[in-house]
Amino acid sequence: MREKLILGGVTVVVLAFLGGLFYYVWKTTIPHTVIIDAGPKTIEPRIAARVQPETLVWTEYKNKKYGYTIKFPSDWQKPAEDGNPAVFRGSGGREGDSLAVHVLENTGAVAADTWWKEKGRKTGVAYASRGEVIIPGIAVGFLYNESDGTKNNHLVFVAKGRIFHISGFGDDSIFANFINSLLFF
């Protein structure tokens, strides 16, 4: 009887260890990049290329206050450290382009799409939905364009108890690479 108890205890310890090891491996191998998906509105795991060729010469910006890193074109102006919003301004023929990360407290635990609709109602600006974006391990975000025909892109999602609003004015591919380089720590 004593041997069965010891064998049962050892089995429990081994299973707990293997479960912890499985959780650690699973948690450390999930890509924490944002995936822009222009396809059907489904929520399913997808793996994005971790490094876009265009971003190899981009500069990394780290915001310790809000726990994220993001890459931007190296010839653009870098924002203040831990700034909110962190605004990246174009240069070298792209002076009118900009990218920005706005972080807002989510005091009412509002969903990202609800917050965005309320913002549109308050400002009177019409926005067209471009679908959902899967942010592995973080959230589902929502992509929007301004309905006036401009190339203004917006991504809104909730992470770390805050609302993140990322906006891009100008080239769609720069906005997509900017979003795809987003990592949380």
Q: Which CATH top level class of the largest domain fits?
A: Alpha Beta
Kindly report how far apart the N and C termini lie. 49 Å
Number of helices: 3
Query: How can the largest sheet be summarized?
Result: 6 strands, antiparallel
Oligomeric assembly: single chain
Shape: elongated
CATH homologous superfamily designation of the largest domain: Mog1/PsbP, alpha/beta/alpha sandwich
In the CATH hierarchy, what is the architecture of the largest domain at level 2? Answer: 3-Layer(aba) Sandwich
Averaged pLDDT, please?
76
Predict the CATH topology of the largest domain. Protein Transport Mog1p, Chain A
The overall number of domains is: 2
Keywords: Membrane, Transmembrane, Transmembrane helix
Transmembrane segments: 5-26
Can you describe this structure in just a few lines?
The protein is α+β, with helices and mostly antiparallel strands and 185 residues long. It has helices at 2-29, 112-123, 172-180; strands at residues 59-63, 68-72, 86-89, 98-105, 127-135, 139-146, 152-159, 162-169, 183-184. The chain folds into two domains: 1-30; 53-184, Mog1/PsbP, alpha/beta/alpha sandwich (Protein Transport Mog1p, Chain A), CATH 3.40.1000.
Give an overview in words.
The chain is an alpha+beta fold. It has 3 helices and 9 strands. The chain has 2 domains: 1-30; 53-184, Mog1/PsbP, alpha/beta/alpha sandwich (Protein Transport Mog1p, Chain A, 3-Layer(aba) Sandwich). The strands form 2 sheets. Strands 3-4-8-7-6-5 form a 6-stranded antiparallel β-sheet, with helices on both faces. A 3-stranded antiparallel β-sheet has the order 1-2-9. Strand 5 (127-135) and strand 6 form a beta hairpin. The longest helix has 28 residues, at 2-29. The termini are far apart. The chain crosses the membrane at residues 5-26. Keywords: Membrane, Transmembrane, Transmembrane helix.
